Amino acid sequence: MPRLDHVAIVVEDLEAALPFFRDLLGLPLDRVADVPEEEVRVAFFPMGGGEIELVQPTTSDSGVARFLARRGPGLHHICVEVEDLEATLRRLQAAGVQLIHEAPLIGRDGTRYAFIHPKSAFGVLVELYERPRVKEPVVPGEG
Ligand code: CO
């Protein structure tokens, strides 16, 4: 079954948002991290195989900061895991879907990712993830 990797919610103040999700909804807070290269501070709540991610912009001129300024806090994107991101992007492009990234980007942990423009996704920014494959163990002396 395809996995929903995460749902990202943009907030103005991460610390102010934590009590609602952690204490009132009762979701376990897994980790909070600064991601300077993306100009955000994030918090993750794992849920049933996926995660809710809170995102607070830490500068005023990133894409997510402009999103927050324009639309206010709320749903920023959903992220769906795919098997083969390159093939998925080619298939989407062939179908006339507007992509934000026409080739996969590579994250810190090796995850390949790309975004589909909300214009082509019924108003929702959609991220696609291809998780790094778990490498086969190398057996010395074989092959
Ligand atoms: Co994401």
In words, what does this structure look like?
The protein has two domains: 1-76, 2,3-Dihydroxybiphenyl 1,2-Dioxygenase, domain 1 (Roll); 82-143, 2,3-Dihydroxybiphenyl 1,2-Dioxygenase, domain 1. 21% of the residues lie in helices and 34% in strands. It is built from three helices and eight strands, in the order βαβββαβαβββ. The chain has an eight-stranded mixed sheet. 18% of the residues are buried. Cobalt (II) ion is lined by residues 6, 8, 77, 79, 127. Cobalt (II) ion binds at residues 6, 8, 77, 79, 127.
Brief characterization of the structure:
By secondary structure, this protein is of the alpha+beta class.
Key descriptive features of the protein:
143 residues; alpha+beta; 2,3-Dihydroxybiphenyl 1,2-Dioxygenase, domain 1; 2 domains; eight-stranded mixed beta sheet; 8 strands; globular; binds cobalt (II) ion
Q: Would you report the number of β strands?
A: 8
On the 0 to 100 scale, the average pLDDT is 94
| % residues in beta strands | 25-35%
The H-and-E topology, N to C, reads as: EHEEEHEHEEE
Largest sheet, if any?
A: 8 strands, mixed
Q: Which ions and ligands are bound to the chains?
A: cobalt (II) ion
CATH class category of the largest domain: Alpha Beta
Low-confidence stretches: none
Helix content: 10-25%
SS-derived structural category: alpha+beta
Domain VOC: 3-131
GO biological process, one term: L-methylmalonyl-CoA metabolic process
Pfam family, one: Glyoxalase_4
Keywords: Coiled coil, Lyase, Metal-binding
Topology:
Blueprint: E1 4-10, H1 14-24, E2 31-35, E3 40-47, E4 50-57, H2 63-71, E5 74-81, H3 85-94, E6 105-106, E7 112-116, E8 125-130
Cobalt (II) ion (CO) binds at residues 6, 8, 77, 79, 127.
